[in-house]
Amino acid sequence: MEDVSVGLPDSRDVFRVYKAGNEGPLLVLLHGGGHSALSWAVFTTAITSRVTCRVLAMDLRGHGASCVRQSDDFSNQTMSSDIANVIRACYGDTAPPIILIGHGVGGAIAVHTTSNMLLPSTVGLVAIDVVEGSAMEALHSIQNFLKGRPKSFKSMDHAIEWSYKSGQIRNLESARVSMVGQIKRCEVEEVNTLEQASPVTDVVVERNEEFYDQSYVNDKESAASESVYKWRIDLSKSEKYWDGWFRGTSNLFLACNLPKLLLLAGIDRLDRDLTIAQMQGKFMMQVLPPCGHAVQEDKPDKVAEAVAAFLLRHKFAEPRRDTRSANSFTQ
With a cut of 50, which residues of the chain have pLDDT below it? Predict the structure, then answer.
């Protein structure tokens, strides 16, 4: 873990990044809306055990522990520039071969970053459960979804339990790591002065995953002297950017002239443009076993297997000599 400063000395933005590995290609991991780089933690363990690679996962602006001046600017241009600036700050002009891997909103940003050729050493692109058609259809229901989630939790353990039982994250090991990057501890006095913000989620939602048990929610009357846990970011305030994140991403994805992989939680996610292109063999695609939208958290082994196969097929990485078979591999 480290904090990377970018920008001019008198106006720096600071991004929290997490790294693993010291040789091989660099996997740049971009999380979904409302999540943080920690959503890639279990996946990172799985992928680095399969192939020789480096990993850099970063908290996008306004998310996790990143601290930027304009934390409410979620435009494609700004967020794509953030990615390029962080990689430049870490590696200068000699960045290793890069495979951009993004989930949800992070997948859309990965597509825009690749399309605009902001990282010249990019050799591959992986988009996880981000499809323009299904994303655009879901936008109208997002605000209601955001308003329905608990605004605070009694403890970190309650938040983890809620995320798992509600189906937001279907892997308890990942939930224990991931939720740390999604919520933060606030003293009750501080909470009382905060604006009552709507909670957040990623933009592509599962309509059958709504589960709101008020026993997880903080009872302010009985917790006068206690701390509570609040969401780190209010994505409902970023609504004006939602359309721009996804509109046109299918064609941009297809136009990127490099090896591409699309991982989906369900075949129903495919829109018309992607369906035709996939039938024409223009990109690799894999539909994963039943899981929620947080694919790399729900099925980290399966995602790692798919990404490793993609890296090996295109000779981007070498297999780890000590890699155990998929059947014997355990987290």
Answer: 194-214, 219-225, 324-331
